[in-house]
Amino acid sequence: MTASVIVRRLAALSGASAVAAGAYGAHGFKNTDPDDYQRVLFETANKYHFYHSLALLGAAHSGKPAVAGTLLIAGMGMFCGSLYHQALTGDPGLRKVAPMGGVAMIVGWLAMIL
């Protein structure tokens, strides 16, 4: 199986999980204040999860799909994962991981140039 096929399949799984997380957030935070920080964190995580799931589809067609895909997936895990974690648990323990995830996502976009 080629790297582009693997990245494309991971993009599909990521997109599906972004939809599921979005549905959970829409219903799980339904009775909370719209300005609630945990809700804002969840919505931010979900938005970037969606964007970068779509970016993975592009990464599958780049010159180095394994490099771009790995960076995007790692970035999503660190950035979106830490925001989801804080939004769902209220524990800010992973918040220092988010900036590293953001950098990995930026580098993942740039890796699609290769």
What does this structure look like?
The chain has about 110 residues and is mostly helical. Helix content is about 75%, strand content about 0%. The protein has helices at about 5-30, 35-60, 65-90, 100-110. The model has no long low-confidence stretch (mean pLDDT about 90).
Brief descriptors of the model:
about 110 residues, mainly alpha, single chain
**What kind of oligomer do you see?**
single chain
Low-confidence stretches: none
- What's the helix-strand series? HHHH
Number of strands: 0
Question: What proportion of the residues is helical, as a percent range?
Answer: over 70%
Strand content: under 5%
Cα-to-Cα separation, first versus last residue: 21 Å
Mean pLDDT: 92
Q: Biggest sheet, open or closed, and with what strands and sense?
A: none
Structural shape: elongated
Number of helices: 4
Question: Helix- and strand-based class?
Answer: mainly alpha
Radius of gyration: 15 Å
What is the structure about, briefly put?
With 114 residues, the protein is mainly α.
Topology of this protein?
Blueprint: H1 3-28, H2 37-59, H3 65-89, H4 98-111
Helix pairs in contact: 1-2, 1-3, 2-3, 3-4
